[in-house]
Design brief:
The protein is an alpha+beta fold. Helices cover 30% and strands 19% of the residues.
Amino acid sequence: MPPPPAGGDVVLSAEELVAGYVPEVNILNGCDFVLNDGELIGIIGPNGAGKSTLLKSLFGLVKVSSGAVTFRGEDITGEPAHSLVAKGIGYVPQNNNVFPRLTVEENLEMGMYLEPKRFKARLETVAGLFPLLAQRLKQRAGSLSGGERQ
């Protein structure tokens, strides 16, 4: 893997990643990936190239058959998604499905998998990060625009 740029620590990386949806068919074969602190990247390619599979593999949503995924120096290969969420790693899919009849707050509660006390504390943190969202917590999620849903 290439070294990080001066001053940029490696935040997320994959080395020699092999992954797929069924054991007999690998979508990724020896894929390397590095995200350094402060970087903003894009992943492009034609349909079926493995973009979504790469991201889902990094975030514990697709089984990695070999290789390693690290987050801030810690090996997270094969950890379940809920464990990664607790470490601060999340995956926002390109679709923006919500439960339209539930409020924004209820939708967030469905996705956080936390006991009530921890949910309230986390909700306050999220509201602090996204003040506009805080104003809409009691609004039905179905009334949000596509971008707001993500």
